[in-house]
Amino acid sequence: MTRRLAIRILAGFGGVALLLLVILAAFPWDRLRGPLERQLSEDFARPVRIGSMERVDSFSLSPRLLVRDVRVPQADWAGPGDLARIRELEIGFRLLPMLLGRLQATSVSIAGARLDFVRDAEGRESWSTGEGGDGTDLSFIERLEVSDSLIRYRDAKQDRAFTATLTATSERGIDLAGSGTIRGAPVRIVAHGDPLPMGGAVAPWPFHAEIEGEAIDMRLVGTMDRPLDVDHFSATMTGRGDDLKRLDAIIEAGLPGTQEVRMKADVRRDFPDWTIMGLVGSIGRSELAGEAVIRKRGERSIIEGRIEAAQLDFDDLASDEGLRRAAEKRERVGPRLIPDTAIDLKRLARTDIMLDFSVKRLLWPGPSPLQTMQGRFVLDRSRIVVKPLTIGLAEGRMNGEAVIDQRGPSGLAPEPMLTLAIDLDRASLFEFAPDAGVDGRLAARLRLAGPGGTVREAIGRSTGTVTIFARDGELPDRTASLLGQDIGRGITGSREKQAVLNCMILHMDVTDGDGRMRPMVIDTSRAVSRFSGRVGLADERLGLTMMGAPKQNSVLRLDAPVRISGTIKDPDVQLPEKARSAGNVLRMLGRAITGDQAPLATSIDCANEMASRGFDF
Questions:
Q1: Whole-structure pTM value
Q2: For the AsmA domain, which residue ranges apply (predicted)?
Q3: Overall number of domains in the chain
Q4: DSSP per-residue letters across 52-96
């Protein structure tokens, strides 16, 4: 009895299920036109209209519907017109996935479609319903036919637009062809996908896509994981652009403007992320290689990777417009030592970066002691930390860290704070001042922090200390004598003879960009020179006074202070008035004859001075 009852219950359930399948297989889907209009209108928040909808077949678990005269209005903010108009759409779908809330299409035929996609400067998308997905799976399509169809796309956020025709047949595959602009540059757009696998098989689907123009070229050749799965594919990418920022209009990683870019890489797309492998390319005359992962999380772009540069020119990391503005500024303000590199992070407010970098050769417009560079660059929510940072020199190296912080108490601060902590060890003084003919072992320590939109502006308003030591070197004998205000030997001495540089000590306390010498001393085998005064880091202007004393008797010895003005790159040494007349020259001679000169200089304790400030080299 129990077994018979169980069999009857199971048979009853089976009968009900079979009856349900029969009802669904014969269901008059055209009756759903009204509910479907209402649901789509709710999803798009605008009135969607369907002219007619009818079932093509009469009985099937994979029904086919013919829909005519579909109209989806454009979003109010996107302007007049329609987001979509479709004259005729025939779609076949599987019934069982439909019951689970997912539309799994098996055939699609579209005729007379007009699609107008708009994204505004804030990133709003006219085609978005605000949902994570529309529940549609196109990867099981066995038959696809598209004719007389046009796609228009306008994107104010990335300044790109195109209009293209879309055609597709089961025999030839899918083709997109059109033209448009990317950041104002005209381009031609072509894309092709192979015919769909027979029977709706889930298999890799070859495709290629190309954007071509004078200012930008990009080509993808690869395979999607399954047909029409644009969110999951692997491809080889080649690209060229007159500016990295123009290429970034396509990949949307928040990259800056640069010189001309060429690159090749293997890429993997797993929406919303990109993985870039085997990257090789160039920016200007800089040669780069590396790998990266670019992830999109909401409005944020997160970039993690590694870059190795065979050679790098920092000027390549600025666009032509940026270089032009920099040249105009140099012409206006004159030569400067402190770079005017922009550090404002407002444009990168939604970008996070963690990048290990290595540069085998740094390129400069002229001679420079800076040869190599390596370290780690981390940008985390408007705060950059470059640590560790190692810069290799022809002799010695720099070590330290740099921080650019633009985080405010409630968002982005108006301007960033730059903090520098750099140590220079066992370098050569000659490498930094080759024209002066001065050499020696060099070490330095820089600790500065200040606000500003550029490096120059931030250092010009910074507070901290700068300490420089040089020792065990040499300099021209005439120069050493003049530093001791020994005019006689400075004028008549041998041009070939060298003096010994015992040490140079420079310690500068900086407050709000105003640097005070405490002290600056140069001790040579000829003299001891002491400098006092200030250096304005904002404009690099000098306001110094030098008093020197020779270590041996001098025939012509200047006993008045020498003033130094001008700028760091272009100093102006001003001799006192009384050193310029014949009468004062005779008075200097008289003091030498009568012995009425100031005391001679004695060497300073260089080792003790350096040790007291923590230097040992």
A1: 0.78
A2: 1-128
A3: 1
A4: EEEESSSS-SS-EEEEEEEEEEPPGGG-SSEEEEEEEEEEEE-HH
